[in-house]
Write a structure and sequence with these properties.
Helices cover 2% and strands 77% of the residues. It is mainly beta. It has an eight-stranded antiparallel β-sheet with strand order 1-2-3-4-7-8-11-12, with no helix packed on it. Strand 7 (107-118) and strand 8 (121-131) form a beta hairpin. The longest helix has 4 residues, at 82-85.
Length: 191
């Protein structure tokens, strides 16, 4: 059995500004220092330490009483889960196994979006770039052993563009719904 320990020291601050009646600005930054360690039988399998800043910004402009536009940016982190880095091996059948990956790195994403509200219709265009994205379903075939191994891996990157729209629709007095539609473009590069 293994022992996983993760310590995260974080500080976050925000500032809100309203320079005019039509403009709303929110800025934030998060500092994070992370130390993660996974030990098996007193042997360190995974030991990572990293420090990062994660800024965020939101700007909204009110065009009319029922119409506004906004722009957002944020930087985020995704850390490997315990099950992703554990060196366990789960045998599904003689030719297919699941295992963890102690070489996984955290992934970092930059996210930007622009949105608009016109009465009740909300439309948003989002772009996200994730460096070293974590994929939990990478399969490798060994032609010598004839075994397929599935384990999480860091990809080179993931790019995501999404256009979405939502609109509340009242079907009756007591029955309300929200209609939602989205188009998604995904570009993934494996190492």
């Amino acid at each position: 059995a293994g022992k996983f320990k993760e310590n995260i020291l974080a500080f976050y601050t925000t500032a809100d500004f309203k320079p005019t009646d039509k403009v709303d600005i929110k800025l934030g930054v998060r500092y994070e220092a992370t130390a993660a360690e996974f030990m098996e039988k007193d042997v360190p399998i995974y030991n990572k330490k990293y420090q990062n800043l994660f800024p965020s910004a939101f700007i909204s402009y009110k065009l009319t009483e029922h119409n506004d536009i906004n722009l957002q940016y944020s930087k985020r982190v995704e850390r490997p889960a315990f099950s992703d880095i554990s060196s366990f091996t789960l045998v599904n059948d003689p030719n297919f196994i699941f295992t963890g990956n102690a070489t996984l790195q955290p992934s970092f994403s930059d996210n930007i979006s622009i949105g608009s509200r016109f009465h009740n219709l909300n439309v948003q265009l989002q772009y996200s770039y994730t460096d070293e994205s974590i994929s939990g379903h990478q399969m490798k075939y060994d032609p010598i052993t004839k075994i397929i191994t599935r384990r999480p891996e860091n990809l080179d990157y993931t790019k995501n563009i999404t256009l979405s729209a939502s609109l509340p629709v009242d079907i009756s007095k007591n029955w309300k719904s929200r209609w939602f539609g989205a188009f998604l473009y995904l570009d993934i590069k494996d190492k």
